[in-house]
Amino acid sequence: MYFDFVEKVVFEGANSTNPLAFKYYDADRIVLGKPMKEHLPFAMAWWHNLCAEGSDMFGRGTADKSFGETPATMAHAKAKVDAGFEFMTKLGIEYFCFHDVDLVPESEDINETNARLDEITDYILEKMKETGIKCLWGTANMFSNPRFMNGAGSTNSAEVYCFAAAQIKKALDLTVKLGGRGYVFWGGREGYESLLNTDVKFEEENIARLMKMAVNYGRSIGFDGDFFIEPKPKEPMKHQYDFDAATSIGFLRKYGLDKDFKMNIEANHATLAGHSFQHELRVSAANGMLGSIDANQGDLLLGWDTDEFPFNVYETTMCMYEVLKAGGMKNGGFNFDAKNRRPSNTAEDMVYGFILGMDTFALGLLKAAAIIEDGRVDAFIADRYASFGEGIGAKIVSGEATLEELAAHAAELGKCSTPGSGRQEMLQSVVNSILFGETK
Ligand code: XLS
Ligand code: CA
Ligand code: CA
Q1: Is 99 in the active site?
Q2: Cα 424 from Cα 142, distance rounded (Å)
Q3: If you average pLDDT over residues 136-150, what whole number do you get?
Q4: pTM score, two decimals?
């Protein structure tokens, strides 16, 4: 027992002052016809919760994640599994996500690492059977090991490329073994520092080749979930190829990978790309590619990936509005790719972080459902484009109209009428009143 200060985190309602209780996340509460927990398949990220100790560029870790064992041993790897499953059970989190090297200490020899991965995933499988907890997605860490300093799929070295392939193959094997619904490619070092030493065209083609091989192999071993690209514009590289959703979707279409891949949108990466979280979700959904979500938030005053637990209800409301309008995410979920702030360094803080994140998304879900039920925003949008539902507009949409015909129509009218107000401020005010209602 690592979290013996709490038996189970339960829903106590918004007026509860118990820091170890949910204020809004009420797993079985029905929202728009289904329980909250089905709208919000939450996942724990192995790396932040069980591995990261709070080190930064200026100082070492502040949190003790040894869980009673000596770090970098298999005993420690197992203690992390025990701690992780206790944590997820107590919070009611039904999924986890992992990188290969989050699970075991990496050996110099990949064969030894793989043997360790086999052993730990046997142990994880036992725990999954005991608890009913499932794997949301797996991935290979192709950015920490020094061999990936010039990239993995985008490396200049064919040998490094083979090691990347070997890690992907193994991580896919493990994802299938654990019944994972997704497999993520986050191109941490797939980019460049300088164009003076980089063949961009070649690197992009090589990344596509690697992804194609991954799809072929994954399908051959029975992986029927989704492959995900997780866009991020920079950090650690100056420029990363999967800059944002629009760029990544274009890349997937160019290389014929769009049937197998969807987007895994991380809130903090969206803002790093100069977009809102909602923008990235909307672009993905508009292209039928909203796959999964890395639930966190950044700090707009800081120019890097702070991976904070989400607390901004406006953002989660707009996120859930997009997810509900898209009809949910088939194989995706809400992975808390989030970490406690460095001074929040106790086991209690780990629990508080997830309570904050889960409550913020639950509140976002309730508010998004209220916006949809209210109907004013959706009705406004539908009405805004009404001129394309009849007459010349309908002809344009059906694809039958010609440029000459439209020009003749304009000529006949002579003067153009106003396209109508966008009513932005009115709609923002509607959203505020739904969000905050009456105040005391
Ligand atoms: C880093 C990414 C990473 C991916 C998985 O910024 O968020 O954690 O989610 O490799
Ligand atoms: Ca992420
Ligand atoms: Ca991140």
Answers
A1: yes
A2: 44
A3: 98
A4: 0.98
Residue 173 Cα, ligand 1 centroid: separation in angstroms?
20
Query: Ligand 1 atom 5: the closest Cα is on which residue?
Result: 186
Pairing of strands 261-266, 290-294: parallel
For 158-183, what is each residue's pLDDT tens digit?
999 999 999 999 999 999 999 999 99
Active-site entry in 26, 100, 102, 242: 102
Q: Is 48 a catalytic residue?
A: no
Which residue's C-alpha comes closest to atom 10 of ligand 1? Answer: 186
| Residue pointed to by tokens 């309008």 | 325
Residues with CB under 6 A from ligand 1: 99, 139, 184, 186, 230, 232, 266, 294, 305, 337
Tokens of 414: 């002579």
| Residue in this structure with the two tokens 């194609």, named with its chain if needed | 212
What pLDDT, on a 0 to 100 scale, did the predictor assign at position 112? 98
For ligand 1, the distance from its centroid to the CA atom of residue 109, given in whole angstroms, is 24
- pLDDT, tens digit, for every residue of 36-95? 999 999 999 999 999 999 999 999 999 999 999 999 999 999 999 999 999 999 999 999
State the distance from the centre of ligand 2 to the C-alpha of 333, rounded, in angstroms: 12
Among residues 26, 39, 48, 99, which one is catalytic?
99
Residue 368 CB contacts under 8 Å (≥ 6 apart), including other chains: 317, 318, 319, 320, 321, 323, 324
Amino acid at 55: S
The DSSP secondary structure of 315-377, one letter per residue, reads HHHHHHHHHHHTT--SS--EEE-----TT--SHHHHHHHHHHHHHHHHHHHHHHHHHHHH-HH
Q: Which atom of ligand 1 is nearest to the CA of 48?
A: 8
Pair of tokens at residue 394: 């309908």
Q: How confident is the model at residue 1 (pLDDT cuts 50, 70, 90)?
A: confident
